[in-house]
Amino acid sequence: MSSALWLSLIAAAPDAGGTANAEALNEKIFLQAREVTEISPLRLRFLKGEVQLTDNNREMIRQWAEKVAKFNIPVYIHSYASAPTGIRNLTPEAARHEAVRIAFNRGLMAKNFLEQSGISHNRLILKSIGPQDSDESDSITITSHQN
Question: Which architecture does CATH list for 41-143?
C-alpha cells in the first residue's frame, strides 16, 4: 500500500482522533517537503522611516501567500529598521526605540496583509528588529524558515 493512500485512510478513519489527523497533516507536509523548501523568502525594501506597503509590495506578498497558504507551516516576518537620523536631542536609546517601533509597524502591516491573503493569524510570527549593521536595514523578510 502506498504511503499516500495509507495516510488518506488514516485521516478518513472514523475513530481517528485529533492526534491522528495532526500526524497525517505532518506526514502530508513531509511528502510535500520539496514544494515547501522551494518557497523562497520574500524580501521587501523600504525607504528610511517608511511604514506603508506599496501596491507592488502588496502584490508580491499576495503571490507569496498563495504558495504558502496550502501548507500548514509557520510564517516568520522579520522586520528591520535603521535608526532615525537628523532629529535633534535624540539619544541613542530613543533612536533604537524609534527604529524598533518603525520595524514593528511595518511588520504589523505585512502581517495584516498576509491574514487578508488567506494565512491564519495563528501561523504568523512577527519579529521586530532594531538598528543593525547589515544590509537588512529598512526591510521585511517573510519566510517559512525560522532563521
Answer: 2-Layer Sandwich (3.30)
